[in-house]
Specification:
The chain is of the alpha+beta class and 81 residues long. Helix content is 30%, strand content 35%. β2 and β3 form a beta hairpin. The chain is globular, with a radius of gyration of 13 Å. The N and C termini lie far apart (40 Å).
């Protein structure tokens, strides 16, 4: 199997209690935006911890580290939670 170099980032967020469903809805829109407009974003996935809906893990994979700097307005709108 050929290995393609990439940059991986795993983010752990602790949300305010009771905001996880709103965050997930906003994040879904953000992930769709990334898929449609950021070709160097190869993966953008969300996971929650079993038994702790307020802790969110986001797995991001980019073509290269410098592509991480492409923070969009959609992200800014999602993060305030």
């Amino acid at each position: 199997m050929a290995k393609t170099p990439s940059f991986l980032l795993v983010v752990r967020l602790k949300l305010r209690p009771g905001t996880s469903e709103t965050f997930k809805k906003r994040w879904t829109a953000l992930a769709r935006h990334c898929e449609e407009h950021e070709p160097s974003t190869w993966a953008y996935e969300l996971a929650t911890l079993r038994g702790d809906e307020d802790t969110i893990l986001i797995y991001e994979r980019y073509r290269a580290e410098e592509d991480l700097g492409q923070v969009s307005q959609a992200f800014d709108e999602c993060v305030p939670l």
